[in-house]
Design goal:
single chain, mainly alpha, globular, F0_ATP_A_sf
Length: about 270
């Protein structure tokens, strides 16, 4: 029973966020998610910016080759799925893919590495009780982060629609599609149904984006935690295959998030 309780405490501790406040509105603001995602964003911007500044037309180095491979992959997906013209879609898609991949890839770090380091820092420099120092290192296993990403995509979708059709054209589409009427009376009568369906379609996009990413990464994080509870030799036997398989999950989830964003933006600039 003690071992079971110890395992339970271990799991609960690893699934508890470092919060700005323990109660009230700001209790939902997770500092670990914010700072890890921010640092990874700077890592992405720094590495790709450095490669761009040092790019050469001669024989490229390995890092430049790798970055060019990613850029070409993203560019090919845009050409296949996006039928409009935009200077934003390229940088946006590249940022989404690499940033989401980096946040997902934090799952590959040993489960106890950064949390134990945070406990040591908290105890050594701030006198904090290690049992009350929490750190979750996979931002995309936090539904707040995935919803923030998807809501940002929703704002961009609306912006693309308004830019392509004009504000009143966008409003007109919300009220007149997918059901069309021949006269003004029929248009007015069908407007509530059209608006309802348009809103369902519009908000289903960020919800599906966020929950798909969150569900896969939360499940992956939980499995790594459960494997870490096993004896060391079982940990190696089970952990290595799962980590190899998880490479596919991490990459696929970043790719799917990027491709769906491109598709949604393509739909936003097209007329019904």
């Amino acid at each position: 029973m003690a071992a079971e309780q110890s395992a339970t405490d271990y799991i609960v501790h690893h699934l508890t966020h470092w919060r700005a406040h323990t109660d009230g509105f700001w209790s939902g603001f997770h500092l670990d998610t914010f700072w890890v995602a921010l640092v990874l964003g700077f890592v992405f911007a720094g590495v790709f910016g450095l490669v761009a500044r040092r790019a050469t037309s001669g024989v490229p180095g390995r890092l430049q080759n790798f970055v060019e491979l990613i850029v070409e992959m993203v560019d090919s997906q845009i050409k296949d799925a996006f039928h409009g013209k935009s200077k934003v879609i390229g940088p946006l898609s590249l940022t989404i893919f690499v940033w989401v991949f980096l946040m997902n890839a934090m799952d590959f770090l040993p489960v106890d590495l950064l949390p134990v380091l945070a406990q040591w820092i908290g105890y050594t420099f701030f006198g904090a009780d290690p049992h009350h120092v929490y750190l979750r290192v996979v931002p995309t296993a936090d539904v707040n982060q995935t919803f923030a990403l998807s809501l940002s995509v929703l704002i961009v979708i609306i912006g693309f629609s308004i830019k392509a059709k004009g504000f009143f054209g966008w409003i007109k589409e919300l009220l007149t599609a997918p059901f069309h009427a021949s006269g003004p009376i029929g248009t007015i009568l069908l407007a509530p149904a059209n608006l309802t369906l348009q809103m369902v379609e519009l908000f289903a996009k960020p919800i599906s984006l966020s929950l798909r990413l969150f569900g896969n990464m939360y499940a992956g994080e939980l499995i790594f935690i459960l494997i870490a509870l096993l004896p060391w030799w079982v940990n190696w036997v089970l952990g290595a295959p799962w980590a190899i398989f998880h490479i596919l999950v991490v990459t696929l989830q970043a790719f799917v998030f990027m491709v769906l964003t491109i598709v949604y933006l393509s739909l936003a600039v097209e007329d019904h």
